[in-house]
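Fill-in record for Protein C19orf12 homolog.
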Amino acid sequence: MFNQVTSAVVSSYIESAATIVIKMPLPVAQVMEAISTIAREENIRVSVTQALRGGALAGGGAVVGALLGGPAGMAIGGTVGSILGATTSKDFKPLITVLKELPAHKQQELADKIQNVVASFNPQDALMLVALIQGSASVHQEVFGAVRDYFDKNLSGMTVEC
């Protein structure tokens, strides 16, 4: 009789424990892995702007032009310098590379931001997170919107290009 009661209690406990969902955040490495996987498949890049370099080329061109040709030379030199600055001011890197280069605390911040976006879905590992993001256009848009927003606000001079 005791074994039947104990068995019934244990069975009831196991059934109720099985229905409890434990929401644990994914490790940062798994979140970065998921984002990197999707970024690689979709060739998502980050533009690294070098505004100071572009400005220096424009100003330098104007100065050299002014020295060589007076006011007209300044206009031509400034224009040539501006064009040269604009054509060389963006350097594109794969998002994967930029994510790997981020310091640990920046990766943690980005992972937290992404976890907030997908928290209601409770993915258990990187594969589930990848499937979730790729399986839903709205989740994909929210996650990469969060990535873009993070780069815009926290990493000056870098813009995510999807």
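KEY FINDING: Helices lie at 2-18, 28-42, 51-88, 95-101, 104-118, 126-135, 137-154.
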